[in-house]
Amino acid sequence: MSTHPPDLLDGLNDAQAEAVITTEGPLLIVAGPGSGKTRVVTHRIAYLVRESSVSPYRIAAVTFTNKAAREMRDRIQGLQVPDADSVFAGTFHAFCARLLRRYGEGVGLDSNYTIYDADDQLGLIKQSMQLADVDEKRNPPRAIQGVISRAKSLLMDSVGLAKRAQIEDDFQAEIAARVYHHYEELLGRSNAVDFDDLLMRAVQLLQENLDVREDYHRRYHYLMVDEFQDTNIAQYRLARLLTGPDQNICVVGDPDQSIYSWRNADIRNILSFQQDYPDARTIALEQNYRSSRNILDTASALIANNGMRVEKELVTEKTAGADVVVHEAYSAVEEAEFVVKQIKDLKNREKISLGDCAVMYRINAQSRILERACSDHDLKYRLVGGTQFYRRREVRDVLAFLFVLRNPQDDVNLERAIKTSSRGIGDKTLQGIVRWSLGQHITVLEGIKRISLAKAAGLPCPAPLASRAYTAVSRFGELMIRMEDLRDKLPISRLIKVLVDEAGLEAYIRSVDTNPEERMENLYELIASAEEKETGSPEDDMRDFLEYASLQSDVDTYDDTEDALTLITLHQAKGLEFPVVFIVGLEEGLLPHSRSMDSNEELEEERRLCYVGITRAQERLYLLRAFQRAMYGRSSSTLPSRFLDEIPQKLLTYASAPGARTVQTVSHRTSFDRSLTTWDRGSSVEEPAGPEYVPSVGDQVKHVKFGQGEVVQCERWGSDYEVSVCFDGGELRRLLLSFAGLEKVQG
DNA sequence: CATTGTAAAGTTTTT
DNA sequence: CTTTACAATG
Questions:
Q1: Mean pLDDT computed over A426-441
Q2: Would you say the C-beta of A171 is within 7 Å of strand C?
Q3: Which carries the bigger pLDDT value, residue A626 or residue A691?
Q4: Cβ(A78)–Cβ(A91) under 8 Å?
Q5: Which of A360, A320, A255 shows the shortest CA–CA distance to A576?
Q6: Is the separation of the CB atoms in A451 and A463 below 8 Å?
Q7: Which positions on chain B have an atom < 7 Å from some protein CB?
Q8: Could you identify the residue whose CA is nearest to the C1' atom of nucleotide B13?
Q9: Res A313: pLDDT
Q10: Main-chain dihedrals φ then ψ at residue A714, nearest 5 degrees
């Protein structure tokens, strides 16, 4: 420990310093991107501990994502806060999970409860729909799931939703309420909660139970909420309930970076805060320390197009910096190639390393092509997110057993465990057991165990089962009995090993799967990540590990030590910064996403998302789009994103792809210019300015670059045509007529 | 019951 | 293109 700790106010401007030292009473910090928001929060925590002698144990900093929480923990530690580990820094969900683990009985939850993820949730909702006699064809389960989730985020139970549906005459909500009712029951029977429940039931508990609430008030004296613009009603209520008599609550947010309304986040919480805490100080941080002026101007110009917005000016003392580069590639593949080439160039010409660069995209599916380009050109990359580790099939299968071992009521995971590998227990047998167990007033697992005990004693099957099923079920029961016996004896990693072995998972994976090596690798990684968290008590370790696996979508194995390019979704990029940022796929339908284009609210959120991406860049920003993009394997032409139009042209430079085929650069240039100036995006009806020449199969055509060839296929594409041409050189190409500049050759 | 095949459907973003 | 759903078969 240093004897000369860094002055915690060093390097802060007046507004930041004020935010740090205003430690008493409610505080609202509205902070633009790059204004040192996290810095303020972490310094504030450090200030509280080091200067105001607040015990770190009394401070809770809640964030929205695990990544933000980890970042916060790391930075507090870096500020030489004594006993920094005692500060709670975690997500709302993690906070609630702990609260319920401890006090859950108050709302009818056994402390071994299971947390169901979105897939489990959907499965239960489908079951509930059957019980409620709701037709899945007419009512998509996902839609019902959405309605229920929204209700929960507004702290409404099924009765509340039913009432509201009636008042508002909302037919869909009425149906959802019926499903919701059964869903609640199924969750309760399984001693399980979903993500929304974590929040809702924690609120319920704190609201109804004064003792618990006061307990928390005694425990936490200072509460900080990061990314406040992304909180939903339940989270906001929770924050209010946790605020003790001193009202030491500090929230930090930026309305322009609100990108989670689809998860029911509600920006209005910022307004509510000012109403609920009339004494709150409000501090605005508008100075940007991150981006060059060109980048900042680009961001400001874009976000200015949002109607629902409190205007805020971003200031910087930085110089204009490099131009923002716009490039239209021909296809997604060439878009990726362009990125890779640029990065290689930057690496050679400037002093920029791979780790300084990030590629951001709207949807995870876009990462594949980028990954491909990276590995083709030997660029090291780090994929953030992607298919989340703890949700991989083989991993979930193993976890299913563990969940059941911990919570014997967890029928969802029990069913999953049974179905992993063929054990001769099908739907019919399972249904028989479930019904019989229900009749006996025992859990399904207990039923299975009794069946296997009966078998071992040579008795006839107590449940109505065929003899083959009897054997199969009892074998599974024996397995579970053996595993239960080991549950508290073996360290969790050993337990998983034994489980993989005894449950025949390896054999199953090797016999069935197309890529068994990768699957097994994942299982080894699971074991390793369990081992990492072992402390000595198998019981506690299991609890912690399962909680971790439920709430953490990915393993924290990215090491920043390795110099690698970051591939990341725009959502996940929030809170990060990079010297060089590429945003790919700036196309209508992708960014903004087609599913967010029918309402203005959603569209503005897309714009904010783009804004978040742009403001991640420190020195260089590249905005890319592909003229042709494949969706579901089918390739089609795209329109440039309206967001590109919204940026003043004087801030942008159009790049031609280094090394790209000339013809494509030329063709994209024309298409781009045209689309920017004359295409009317207000209506989807394209102008009949289509090609004058209507091609047909067998035609001889000529192309500027590829020469002469024969049309072998021709399809209408809106007002355009997609033609496949077999050129005389033997090359087969698919081209869009209006951009390929094909000419018919008489012959 | 499980395996195999074919058909259809679907992909926003995260806890 | 990839994953899931469902039907038919052994």
A1: 89
A2: no
A3: A626
A4: no
A5: A360
A6: yes
A7: 1-4, 9-15
A8: A571
A9: 84
A10: -150, 125
